[in-house]
Design a protein that fits this description.
about 350 residues, alpha+beta, Lysozyme-like, SH3 type barrels, five-stranded antiparallel β-sheet, 8 helices, globular
Length: about 350
């Protein structure tokens, strides 16, 4: 089977993500999970799988993805395979995987799996793969509004399955006769956890990728607030239309030379009524906070002053009469990202 071509290339937490979903590509009709995780994700589970030799022009993460398509991975289905170069996404994030060996337990049914590809040598490739896994884990935790105590090992779920008791970290590292996984990360789990926490603290989900995801001859469109503000980048795309779809209000799509090719100039006006439609909408205390102050249930709110803040957030309030009133602290409910709004 030829080397796979991803459907799209983005970045998350500074890690290049090459999306190739098995729900779209299943020529060999391999068995697939069917249980939805929509609104149920409780964390990220870290695994290790062995580094393998690869052909020229590809990476271990692509080869593991290809092996899955060919049914050579038996019944293993994970969201991400991550190596020292990039990460290949195999499953949508709202679909459960088969990775925790806990059947219908929370490991399979409610966590996102990252298979970190290493060989245990501690060489540069191992370190980079582990760093990519840490960045990706942090970005996913932030995406779901979860803290570091929602970072799990495969062994955690085996211990839960076997009826063992303890704290999250005790179960993460407690011996299990069936399997100790992630085998190469477990010996320094505390150090890995600190690394993930550091990326959580730094808000690394918006950092600039350190490697070029496609050859320099191929056009990439980057979505940023401005060309010079690399930290605001939402992603990079091979196709302009995909970049336009990802472009939030106040952002612009730039070509590889830094030329603006599309700007989302839509604004929310003071007093405008908006609908929050997600089951849990993150509410922030200010425009730069990385940890939500709380969550809002679906409902109607109003744009407080129509000023677009950092990170694509607007201040909202509960009634039209509160809009623009001072002091703001008395009338503003909080800051909400524009992608949570549905205009009314």
């Amino acid at each position: 089977m030829a080397i796979l071509t991803p459907d799209k290339i983005t970045t998350l937490g500074g890690v290049i993500i090459k999306e190739y979903l098995l729900t779209k590509h299943n020529p060999n009709h391999i068995a697939m999970p069917t249980v939805s995780m929509a609104g149920k994700v409780i964390g990220v589970t870290i695994h290790n799988t062995d580094r393998i030799k690869t052909a020229a022009g590809t990476t271990p993460a692509e080869q593991y993805t290809r092996a899955t398509v060919n049914n050579n991975m038996k019944d293993v289905r994970v969201q991400y395979y991550t190596d020292s170069i990039c990460s290949w996404q195999n499953l949508p994030l709202d679909l459960s995987g088969w990775h925790a060996a806990d059947g219908s337990g929370n490991g399979n049914r409610r966590t996102i799996a990252i298979e970190c590809i290493m060989n245990g040598s501690g060489d540069a490739e191992d370190k980079k793969a582990e760093d990519n896994a840490a960045r990706l884990a942090a970005a996913l935790l932030r995406q779901y509004g979860l803290g570091i105590d929602h970072l799990y090992t495969h062994t955690h779920w085996l211990n839960v399955r076997d009826g063992k008791k303890g704290t999250v970290d005790q179960l993460n590292t407690m011996h299990n006769s069936y399997k100790m996984c992630p085998a190469y990360i477990l010996p320094h789990w505390a150090e890995f956890k600190k690394k993930v926490q550091s990326y959580l603290n730094a808000g690394s989900a918006s950092v600039t990728p350190t490697q070029t995801p496609t050859p320099a001859t191929k056009q990439l469109y980057r979505v940023r607030k401005s060309w010079t503000d690399a930290k605001s980048q939402l992603g990079s795309y091979s196709y302009l239309e995909n970049a336009k779809k990802a472009c939030k209000a106040g952002y612009t799509v730039f070509d590889a030379s830094g030329n603006a090719v599309y700007t989302n100039g839509s604004k929310y006006a003071k007093g405008q009524k908006v609908q929050l439609y997600k089951s849990k909408t993150q509410l922030f205390a200010n425009d730069t906070a990385t940890t939500p102050a709380g969550y809002l249930t679906p409902g109607t709110y109003y744009i407080y002053d129509g000023i677009a803040c950092k990170n694509g957030r607007y201040r909202i309030t509960t009634t039209a009469g509160n809009c623009g009133k001072t002091p703001a602290g008395k009338y503003v409910t909080g800051y909400v990202s524009v992608d949570n709004f549905r205009e009314m």
